[in-house]
Write a structure and sequence with these properties.
The complex is a heterodimer of chains A (625) and B (339). With 625 residues, chain A is of the alpha/beta class. Chain A is built from 21 helices and 22 strands. Chain A folds into three domains: 219 residues, Pyruvate-ferredoxin oxidoreductase, PFOR, domain III (Pyruvate-ferredoxin Oxidoreductase, domain 3); 187 residues, Thiamin diphosphate (ThDP)-binding fold, Pyr/PP domains (Rossmann fold, 3-Layer(aba) Sandwich); 100 residues, Rossmann fold. In chain A, the strands form five sheets. Chain A has a seven-stranded mixed β-sheet with strand order 11-10-12-13-15-14-20, with helices on both faces. Chain A has a six-stranded mixed β-sheet with strand order 3-4-2-5-6-7, with helices on both faces. A four-stranded parallel β-sheet of chain A has the order 19-18-21-22, sandwiched between helices. In chain A, helix 7 runs parallel beside helix 9 and helix 8 runs antiparallel to helix 9. Chain A starts with 18 loop residues before the first strand and ends with a helix. The N terminus of chain A is likely disordered. The radius of gyration of chain B is 23 Å and the shape is globular. Chain B has a domain of 219 residues: Rossmann fold. Chain B has 339 residues and is α/β, with parallel strands linked by helices. In chain B, strand 1, helix 2 and strand 2 form a beta-alpha-beta unit. In chain B, the strands form two sheets. Chain B has an eight-stranded mixed β-sheet, with helices on both faces. Chain B has a three-stranded antiparallel β-sheet with strand order 8-9-10. Classes of the chains: A alpha/beta (625), B alpha/beta (339). At the A-B interface, helix 1, strand 9, helix 10, strand 11 and helix 12 of A face strand 1, strand 2, helix 3, helix 5 and helix 11 of B.
């Protein structure tokens, strides 16, 4: 919990329990895949966000839709970090854990801080469930949980009792137990019930009995906290001091969808989204399918290749053309991306990275597609690549990628990852009038039009089919400079390869110089990119608070890299590159800048924990006085 | 600046690009190119509204020779690229030019899904039953046992039949023509132009170098009328140089009958508009040499094309919710204010 907790404050009312003030707390809800933990977690997040805390979340669920009930394979978890100050990660270990069954306890207990609050659904700790979770003896009875504040709450039976009056069947009634657990947590952390009740009414309004049952379960859980003698204290985390404005809680995938619909609207063009369903990118497809009134043309293609090819066709015909996928789909799209590079059409490819290789860990996060993004095609095939650093930053990354794609007539890759895509944080709603302009220029003059005549940026003109007298042919065969006719002339090929490379290199003109958090020179610079930003920034902030000389640079643009990056790297004695792969950015930095950087690698399907970065910083600075 | 489009000024040469045509002498592709240029001119098509999309292979060089908009894509993906073009701008006339390898081997998946979605594309498949550009390997339409560089002992692959596949995907328009029968080829292409939705045309096309005379039975002046049956809607299936043979449905099977012994009234009547594709599929199962092979329009039915449905949903959403407003989108759902 937050490091600056105040002395216990008296609470109001005769029955009220003492309240402990904290600056931050992390909570995890864990249960079976069918227990509704993702839903309960989302509600806790929304409530905390509306309450005014800064929040960061981390859903963690199995790739099977319904793994066998009660088993370790079927455990689904949702972690929320909420605070009265800025936070960048969902938190390492948690202050409170709800375990809806023995398997959930077993899979998560090691992440609960010593002295943390453990709420278990004691009804589910029967012989059968204990066996499924591979417990020889009931952990609630062995004393092995002595390090925690254990609260055994009969959640299932209490829920059934609470919703009895609705007349729901036992099965349906039992399904409300996630709301009961949520009610207990709301009591414990002083959350308001109203946002969730509003949500329940909206969601289940058509089935009044179900709406009433969920409401009753939530209220009963909340009341249990007050009445039950097992809870001696509750916790208060005040609203955070975020910059003024209207806020909304967004996941990375929602933010990505919002970003592209915004870009297309600002450009005044239809948005074309061609995609094939794939975890963890599918929510972009879902979000965009909901908002067709923005003239969003969503095509769920027959496969990944078709999605990318349709994007090329749509770009040729003048739409803001976007596809979204994850690693395996990205691999399938690469030949077509090469065609987009060759035909120099503006389009955007979002890769929501997941654990690989092959099918890998579909629901878990990783950053191991950087090489695939930068180097992954046949021939000399460069294109701009950028990475979002947080869930809400996916919005801005989408806007920026579209600007660059249009300005330079090139495909652009946006790297997100499973952790950003499904995690959420408060997003300050921008005023559409303050958003950057997105310029679209089309060729219209047949007297001057030549398909491969470049402008000062190196971009060729965009001539839409349907424009009078600009008919021309493009394609995957090498083309002659300026005129765009098929050409196998040796010198022309060299020249065109150079021109395409130069064009992508020119993008650096639109990239801000790299900023450094902390001192601009010193003994240690930690470099991160994409989704590793939060953990690294938190670790570096903490280290600096304790007087350690360490700085942080988070790379947004991976290709091209900012102009000043080489100079920055040279100003530090040591450079540490922390990434969720086995050293892909490290390799690129060493190759490009001849810097003797070292890496911190992790490929466990989970984001970095802050303490992992901290340990490495300590180790690298340890030899110094 | 260019003048506004005047359909009365359209001529064949408008559709000829300045690129040298590089197909081999004797290749059937030349004829298809010329017939299509003629048909487009006769149809008063606007080249500025026309896009040709192809994949890879000999036939896929087609867009370079058409003075229209065009994309020479990657192997097998023409239909997918064209789907993007059509959805982005349904006003355009979008043609897909593909071959038996491009369309049915590497691109088989896109062929299937374009047909079943009924995207408004004209799709011409040049079927020469061989891989020409890679210099002579068997293709998915090569006859069983065909000897090629990659099948010196004869193929052991059973061939796929393009029209059967298209009909299996419930294509709304399927037709076949032969490269050398130029009048008929023009008629079939004109019918494809008039169709809304996916219009699929298979053209039997000679590869002079690697599979010469594969369709001699269908092109030889002396014998071709005995080996082809020209489909006409509402008419009985009659064929033969002397129009003395017909096709009869006997129970569940088709049979060739002589008109000296069987009345015309007993012959199978062609119905290209039948709601079910079963009739057309039965015709597609007629293979040389057991049967004369049908040419002409197998099926022409109407279903709303994909791009119309796509834009229809957008129009309906705008009708209901109004045109999208960013501010409204951003503030939908739960929001909160920080002062």
């Amino acid at each position: 919990m937050g490091t600056t907790s105040s002395p216990t404050a008296p609470a109001e009312g005769p029955l009220a329990k003492p309240v402990k003030e904290l600056t931050q707390a992390a909570v995890r809800l864990a249960g079976d895949s069918g227990d509704g933990m993702q839903l309960a977690g989302s509600q806790f997040t929304a409530t905390s966000a509306v309450f005014g805390n800064d929040v960061a979340t981390f859903p963690d669920y199995p790739s099977e839709i319904r793994a066998p009930i009660g088993t370790l394979a079927g455990v689904s978890g949702f972690q929320i970090n909420f605070a009265s100050r800025d936070i960048y990660t969902p938190g390492d270990r948690v202050d409170a854990l709800v375990a809806m069954n023995p398997a959930a306890l077993k899979a998560n207990i090691n992440d609960l801080l010593e002295g943390g609050v453990l709420i278990v659904n004691s009804d589910e700790f029967n012989a059968s469930n204990l066996e499924k979770a591979k417990y020889d003896r009931n952990p609630l009875e062995t004393g092995e949980l002595g390090r925690y504040q254990v609260h055994k709450v009969p959640i299932t039976s209490q829920t059934l009792e609470a919703v009895k009056e609705t007349g729901l069947s036992g099965k349906d009634a039992g399904r409300c137990r996630n709301f009961y657990a949520l009610g207990v947590l709301y009591w414990l952390f002083e959350r308001p019930l109203e946002p969730t009740i509003r949500w329940i009414n909206a969601k289940f309004g058509k089935v009044p009995a179900v709406a009433q049952a969920n409401r009753l379960a939530l209220e009963a859980g909340h009341a249990f906290g007050d009445i039950a003698e097992m809870f001696t204290v509750r916790y208060r985390i005040r609203p955070a001091q975020l910059p003024p404005g209207t806020y909304k809680s967004l996941t990375g995938n929602q933010a990505t969808a919002y970003g592209f619909v915004t870009a297309a609207t600002l450009a005044g063009r239809p948005l074309f989204y061609g995609s094939y369903p794939i975890t963890p990118a599918s929510e972009i497809l879902h979000e965009l399918s909901e908002i067709k009134n923005f003239d969003v043309r969503v095509v769920q293609a027959e496969d990944e290749i078709a999605a990318m090819c349709a994007v090329i066709g749509a770009a040729y015909a003048g739409n803001i053309a976007v596809t979204g996928t994850s690693g395996p789909g990205m691999a399938l799209k690469q030949e077509a991306i090469g065609l987009a590079v060759m035909t120099e059409l503006p389009c955007i490819i979002v890769n929501v990275q997941r654990g690989g290789p092959s099918t890998g860990l579909p629901t878990k996060t990783e950053q191991a597609d950087l090489w695939q993004a930068i180097l992954g095609r046949n021939g000399e095939c460069p294109l701009p690549v950028l990475a979002a650093r947080s869930p809400s930053d996916c919005f801005w990354a989408a806007l920026e990628a579209t600007q660059i794609a249009l300005k330079y007539m090139t495909p652009v890759i946006v790297l997100s990852d499973g952790y950003l895509a499904q995690g959420s944080e408060p997003w300050r709603v921008p005023d559409p009038k303050e958003l950057p302009k997105i310029e679209v220029r089309f060729a219209t003059d047949p007297a001057t039009y030549k398909p491969y005549q470049r402008d000062a940026n190196g971009a060729r003109p965009w001539a839409l089919p349907g424009t009078p007298s600009l008919h021309h042919r493009i394609g995957g065969l090498e083309k002659s400079d300026i005129y765009g006719e098929v050409s196998h002339v040796p010198e022309n090929h060299q020249h065109m390869v150079n021109l395409r490379a130069q064009k992508v290199a020119n993008v650096v003109r639109d990239i801000p110089d790299q900023d450094v958090f902390g001192d601009d020179r010193g003994p240690l610079l930690v470099v991160s990119w994409g989704g590793s930003y939060g953990a690294v920034r938190t670790a570096v902030e903490r280290a600096r608070d304790q007087g350690q000389k360490v700085s942080h640079a988070n790379l947004r643009w991976l290709n091209p890299m900012p102009r000043n990056l080489g100079d920055i790297l040279k100003r530090f004695d040591k450079v540490l590159v922390a990434e969720m792969n086995m050293g892909q950015l490290l390799f690129l930095l060493r190759g490009r800048y001849l810097v003797d950087a070292v890496g911190l690698h992790k490929v466990q399907g989970r984001p970095f924990m802050v303490h992992e970065i901290t340990s490495k910083i300590d180790e690298l600075l340890g030899g110094r006085s | 600046m260019s003048a506004a489009f005047d359909p009365n000024l359209v001529s064949v040469k408008d559709f000829k690009s300045d690129q040298q045509v590089k197909w081999c002498p004797g290749c059937g592709d030349h004829s298809i190119l010329v017939q299509l240029q003629k048909v487009l001119a006769a149809d008063k098509s606007n080249r500025d509204q026309t896009v040709f999309v192809s994949g890879i292979g000999c036939s896929s060089r087609f867009p370079y020779y058409m003075n229209t908009y065009g994309i020479h894509g990657i192997h097998g993906r023409a239909a997918a690229i064209a789907t993007g073009v059509k959805c982005a701008n349904p006003e355009l006339d979008v043609w897909v030019v593909t071959g038996d390898g491009d369309g049915l081997s590497i691109g088989g998946n896109h062929f299937l899904h374009t047909a079943r979605r009924n995207v408004g594309l004209k799709m011409i498949l040049f079927n020469n039953r061989i891989y020409g550009l890679t210099k002579g390997q068997y293709s998915p339409t090569s006859d069983f046992g065909t000897r090629t560089k990659s099948s010196p002992f004869g193929t052991i692959d059973y061939p796929v039949h393009p029209i059967s596949v298209a009909l299996g995907a419930e294509v709304t328009f399927a037709a076949r023509a032969v490269d050398t029968d130029v009048q008929h080829l023009q008629q079939v292409l004109q019918r494809a132009i008039e169709h809304r939705g996916t219009a699929f045309v298979e053209v039997y096309q000679n590869c002079q170098v690697y599979n010469a005379n594969a369709f001699e039975w269908a092109t030889d002046r002396n014998t071709r009328l005995d080996h082809l049956v020209y489909l006409e809607h509402g008419k009985p299936l009659i064929f033969g140089k002397n129009r003395d043979k017909g096709i009869r449905l006997n129970g569940d099977a088709l049979e060739v009958v002589g008109l000296s012994t069987v009345s015309q009234d007993d012959l199978l009547i062609h119905d290209e508009r039948a709601a079910s594709s079963a009739h057309a599929f039965r015709l597609a199962q007629m293979h040389h040499p057991e049967f004369p092979e049908p040419v002409g329009v197998f099926r022409a039915v109407h279903k709303p094309p994909y791009e119309e449905l796509l834009l229809g949903q957008i129009a309906a959403a705008r009708e209901k919710q109004g045109a999208g407003q960013l501010d409204k989108l951003y503030r939908s759902g739960d929001t909160w204010k920080v002062a």
